[in-house]
Amino acid sequence: MNEIPHWLEKQSDLQPTNVAIEYGEHQSISYSELREESRKLAKGLIKKGVKQGDHVAILSGNRVEFPICVHALSYIGAVVVCLNTRLSPEELAFQLTDADATSFIVDTEFVEEGHKAIELTTLNEDTLVTMDHLPKADGSISLNDQLSLDDVFTMMYTSGTTGKPKAVMHTYGNHWFSAVASALNLGLSARDKWLACLPLFHVGGFSLLMKNVIYGMPIRMLARFDAEVINNEIRHHGVTIVSVVTVMLQRLLKDLQENSYPRSFRCMLLGGGPVPKPLLHKANERNIPVFQTYGMTETSSQIVTLSPSDALRKIGSAGKALAPATLKVLVGGRIAEPYETGEIHVRGPMVSSGYYKKGHREAEYLATGDAGYLDEEGFLYVVDRVNDMIISGGENIYPAEVESVLLGIEGVEEAGVTGMPDDEWGEVPTAFIVKKEEADISLEKLNEYCRGHLAPYKIPKQLFVISQLPRNASNKIVRRKLFKSVEGEHGYEH
Hints:
Function: Converts 2-succinylbenzoate (OSB) to 2-succinylbenzoyl-CoA (OSB-CoA).
Oligomer: single chain
Protein name: 2-succinylbenzoate--CoA ligase
Family: Belongs to the ATP-dependent AMP-binding enzyme family. MenE subfamily.
Radius of gyration: 23 Å
CATH architecture of the largest domain: 3-Layer(aba) Sandwich
GO molecular function: o-succinylbenzoate-CoA ligase activity
EC number: 6.2.1.26
């Protein structure tokens, strides 16, 4: 079998007293303590009836019990089902049922939602365990000391920006190769400390738990995103790498004001979709090392990343496929020409083989559903989601391109664009703006600016000034909900 030593056992053996995770105000847990707590929980769960192959759902925010539960379940050989804390009880019930969950571990903060979800399933109330009352046990109960890279380890649901969410199955090997591929690109330093501010139930956050035990690298875990706290951690507490999405970087820059990051800070890994060019230029002016990256739940986090040597030369690019991965862009089944936009296809050992109950992927490459193009050197530029594309009078409009231009307008803090039905053109682009406090934003001002940056058919025909954009737990704009967010807001028509 394709086995490796259990990664937490290995780190506990190599560096037992070293800090594994920092959390809370001034708390930390070492690798030996993380191992001990995880093994005790594994034995307690076994006594409670959890067995190898069971699907155990976890509904939790970023707290130290989350990784303890994850590692405990790996010692048992059970599958971790990660649930989004923003879901309604009805949505949770759907995923619990769809995933065939047999047990349900719930953060105390979400107990009410957990119980409501249980009531909508066939699960018994005693299958729900709260994190404040996790069962711990000692004794000579056999636990896994080896991990099979071919075994399914986690199930994470797609964000559901289009249609019903599906459970992506990740093997231990998917997580292993994702971590190794990232290290081959970004390198490793003995001084590295990666800050986890993305939700741990999301693949971007979960991947840091894997890097933590595969690299033996400490992570600093935050309960939630807080720009002031993160900037303080980078500037004064040794954080060298942070994973963020666009809106997080915008808020970090705003909070940073005229301050700067120390030279020891080496990477702001920026993913979560296309990134506005003005934001990248602003970060570059502040000497912030932003490395764009591209990935998705199906690729166990990043699969394409811009290497440090190309970060400035190829600003705006997500880079090239990581060492064990390959990619291609297809248009109507053929390989796209340089700069020709098509659908991104990827393959590699970090790519999931399929979705639970949906069968395994038969194609050699995964069709990502994302639109992008390669330049003449093979660098990937992610344009948008294929399903978010607006078709206006037969012309393709990618919302992310328009949003990037809108963010260059003085006074615009955030921007979202989607299509609005139109009798003449089929669809026309509509803009949704979150403005800065004292800013004066009008459709006329928007049009005047856009005329110098966009083709006429790409210029928004209607403008809504709203208080906030609808986002999912990954902080991605949910464009299909933009019109639902405008009730009581100001609209301006062309």
